[in-house]
Amino acid sequence: MAGSEDQKFCLLEVLNSFKLCLSPDKEVYLEHYVAGWRGLVKFLNTLGSVFGFISKDAVSKIQILVNFLNSENGSHYATMQSMVKFELDNELVDVDKKGICPESGCRTLLRLHRALRWLELFLERLRTSKEDDKTSVMCREAYNESLAQHHPWVVRKAAGMAFFALPGRPAFFEVMNVGPPEQVVEVLGKAVPLISEVYLITEELYQKHNLLDLP
Questions:
Q1: Pairwise CA distance, residues 96 & 99, whole Å
Q2: What distance in Å separates the CA atoms of residue 127 and residue 188, rounded to the nearest whole number?
Q3: If you ran DSSP here, which 8-state letter would residue 151 be given?
Q4: How many helices (H) and strands (E) in the chain?
Q5: Lowest mean pLDDT: which of 13-17, 41-45, 156-160, 163-167?
Q6: Mean pLDDT lowest among 14-28, 33-47, 150-164
Q7: 20 to 30 A Cα–Cα from 182, which one of 1, 94, 110, 204?
Q8: Phi, psi of 76 (to 5 degrees)
Q9: 58 — alpha (psi -120 to 50), left (phi > 0) or beta?
Q10: Rounded distance, CA 37 to CA 175, Å?
Q11: What is the per-residue pLDDT across 106-144, written as a single tens digit (0 to 9) for each?
Q12: Are the CB atoms for 36 and 14 separated by under 8 Å?
């Protein structure tokens, strides 16, 4: 996979996708959000099987959202805001936790939203790290502050073990494919705030409509 140009990760790709995510009115374009996530999945896959438990789930969630975008109701999924309105208005979201609509756009995106927070925190730690800082510690701290609270014990245990197998900081910087370490830090300094803004807008939208705890 590492030799395939289609699978090769570049941090600039993620930066550009999240840069395109926001409309002038701060609505989030689902198409560019999905594109940004495709780039992040390449990042996870570049690091081998360590993040397989997250990247596989992200790929399936991305495909569900793409299917919605390409459906006859695709125009309602142009932005996160229009998707939430459409699905709530048409009772397509399991807000009462009855086990219906397991693949609603709102539920699907919530899973990606939670994982995005973990990646945002991890990438920010990478940006501000020193050369000899341990990526396993950075990743574990980011995970414990975000995704861990949504995972059962067995998954948290497996994740903790996986983090110990992470390569060092230089390897992470190399897979960014943007140049020397100082260039990586500079691009991360542009990408992470964009990811953070998209995350916060999504968080506020879901909080407003009581969607943060969808089963």
A1: 8
A2: 6
A3: S
A4: 9, 0
A5: 156-160
A6: 150-164
A7: 1
A8: -75, -10
A9: alpha
A10: 16
A11: 999 999 999 999 999 999 999 999 888 999 899 989 988
A12: yes
